[in-house]
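Box 3.1 A note on notation
Throughout this textbook, protein chains are presented in two layers. The first layer is the amino acid sequence; the second is a token string describing backbone geometry. Keep the layers aligned when reading.
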Amino acid sequence: MSEAMGYPTIRPRRLRVSASLRAIVRETSLAPSDLVYPFFFHAGISEPRPIKTMPGIFQLPVSAAAGQAKELVARGVRSAILFGLPKTKDATGSSGLDPEGPVPLAVKAMKAAAPELIVMTDVCVDEYTDHGHCGILRTRRDGQVEVDNDRTVELLAQMAVMHADAGADIVAPSDMMDGRVGAIRHALDGNGFETTAVMSYAVKYASAFYGPFREAADCAPKFGDRAGYQMDPGNAREALREAALDEAEGADLLMVKPALPYLDVVRDVRKATNLPLAAYNVSGEYSMLCAAAAAGMIDLDRAMMEVLTSIRRAGADLILTYHALRAAELLGG
């Protein structure tokens, strides 16, 4: 259609005159059901423990799981993702395979309390290893220590089966090991969990924005960093390769993490796949807004909703975010 006549006939402001008009022509919507709330369940505590770097977020005892599930459903938030903090850690993350660990116990409690809640689990061993890396370590011939990809994949497949057996609807490997999606899919199918979905952290960058999370999950690496297995922040084409590989291995959903510094990648992956796409509005992004609001620099609610809308606008179907409960409240959930 031609707009040759131009101003004053054409006035885009006509559709901005009122909140009602703006609402009916809004291109990007946001609803509580678009949000996934992350939980940190700690096997060694009996009361909620505040996370200093993440205002309003807590490590929780497993006994709180049922109540949290009911609250999410009441707010209209349909899904949660669970992280676990064990009582003990070792070099191989063996406590991550304990069926009486915090994640499987919390899964059971949440599904019993709110069967309609979609419960996702993080499948990674960084919370369970004493060195904080996302896998089993080995020493190369040159003396360098690295994560052993294939031994770690075997461990992740066992963990995924255990989570599925506890009742998880979706398992979400976040380790960035090569081949783990296929191995997990094979293990799930081989153990009778054909209907358990896999949401792959397909595109996970070695980001500075994970800092507060590492306090929350007690999983900061004791040496080195994770750049040997997480993606380089400068790479976008590689993201498409990673997403395509995970889709070919059987992933049911894909994820980009973090969200805000990689909105271009969210858009690129959205164009490249028909699978549902999630993006993780990570701890550093959350804490930045909280800190700016505490300093009087921004209106937290407005900034939060703008951020979440931007992630949806870039192409994410689901947003993992610590803002989920407050956003759902503002959205009428």
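The chain has one domain: 29-330. The chain has a mean pLDDT of 95.
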